[in-house]
Amino acid sequence: GENVEQHPSTLSVQEGDSAVIKCTYSDSASNYFPWYKQELGKRPQLIIDIRSNVGEKKDQRIAVTLNKTAKHFSLHITETQPEDSAVYFCAARLNTGTASKLTFGTGTRLQVTL
Amino acid sequence: GAVVSQHPSWVICKSGTSVKIECRSLDFQATTMFWYRQFPKQSLMLMATSNEGSKATYEQGVEKDKFLINHASLTLSTLTVTSAHPEDSSFYICSARPPTGIAEAFFGQGTRLTVV
Question: What kind and span of H or E run contains B5?
Answer without folding.
Answer: strand B4-7
